[in-house]
Amino acid sequence: MEEYILQDQLARYAPRLYPLHMPGHKRRMAPAPDLPYTWDLTEVEGVDDLHEAEGILAQAMARTATLWGADRSWYLVNGSTCGILAAIHAAVPFGGSLLCARNCHKSVYHAIQLGHLHPHWLLPPVDPDFGIYGSLPPQAVARALDAHPEASCLVLTSPTYEGVLSDLKAIADLCHARNIPLIVDEAHGAHYLPLAAPWGWRGGAVAAGADLVIQSPHKTLPSLTQTALLHLNGDRIDPAAVEQALDLFETSSPSYPLMASLDGCTGILAHRGESLFAAWRQRLDRFSAAVRPLQGLRVFCHGTDRPENHPTVFAQDPGKLLVSGRGAGYTGAGLAKLLRERFGFETEMSCGENLLAMTSICDEETALDRFAAALLALDRRAGSIPSAPALPEPGEAKMTIAQALAAPGEAVAWEDAAGRVAAEYLWAYPPGVPLIVPGEVLEPAMLAACRGLEAAGTRLRRSRGGAAGVFVVRG
User: Fold this and answer.
1) pLDDT in tens, 133-172
2) Cα–chain center distance at 133
3) Which domains can be identified in the chain, with CATH numbers?
């Protein structure tokens, strides 16, 4: 039976004392039906304080660290974004430099912006079949470490939004040989923990020895949206610096229902994790076998698409189902619309010719069987569409992100933007990886790639500009 350390204490506390304190609902008036408002407390005697945890929260976080194999773990209620901001702030001094994979989430760029940091970008190779970034090669990391010995850390994402994994053990060893900390955005890989290894989920960041690892259990495990974990290994980064950074970036009023869901997730995995991962693996294996007859549609590293077909990819997370519609005449947006309207599936993301379906240990037993049947039915459509433009290399950085955002700017049309310096971010969300970054010269290939995504039905988001074109530095 699962243990719910935090929930049990909250349930015991709630009836005992009348609350002459926050929150204003006083545990008497539900803001909406079915909300667990009776657990919604503030930092009062008996329920601990996330920012100075000494009691039940310290106990819960220690249990979580043990389950994942980390030296120390912190609960986060501002999502992985909070953890990424805090990790980089703790590792890199103001105005310092870092090595960073170019396909990181926008929160990494925001940390660079806030710290006036100088990034040295590492661009992963592109898988030509699916038009996605592959793994970050250890050889590229070694060259970057040699070229920039002043860098305070390396930041990368593994697995990526599409499920691409890098060789984290080799990369960690390279960094640690030079006493450089490794920070891994593993928001999409919280399920990479020791008890999942027998069913194929190996190579996680904590096991590889990464110094700081940020995870979002709510993406693939039973935890509420906005919950995240920050794990620390070794002594290259001071835990006191991490806590000081969390004071900056995390709310001073953390939600007890959110924290209870993290503790509850830990309890479920500790007691039923092995059977849950075994069942997930069986569902995925059935799906992979079922989609083997696909002719036009393709599923990345499933069915007849084998990992060896993708030499730029070190490994792939089997829980991510990335479908290319190109060979069957679909854009990702078109495929998503048909799956929603005809088959009752709401998928995670559509971008260009691709569609992403996310799975987890909590899926209903026959859901992936029905999803495979839907893809087989849609596969009967004839025709094809042109492949999306390949992800191009970014332009040269002419100023830091912070400088570009502070500079006077103006909105220009796509056709007038080539050669100008970007003064805003532009990204598809999800996954939230910036295509255009402030301070970089806008190259024609990057502009063409952005326009191609929009033509395929992908909505691009802008941080400063209008509905079309791009915001650039004036002059």
Assistant:
1) 999 999 999 999 999 999 999 999 999 999 999 999 999 9
2) 14
3) 5-268 (3.40.640.10), 273-378 (3.90.1150.10), 401-473 (3.90.105.10)
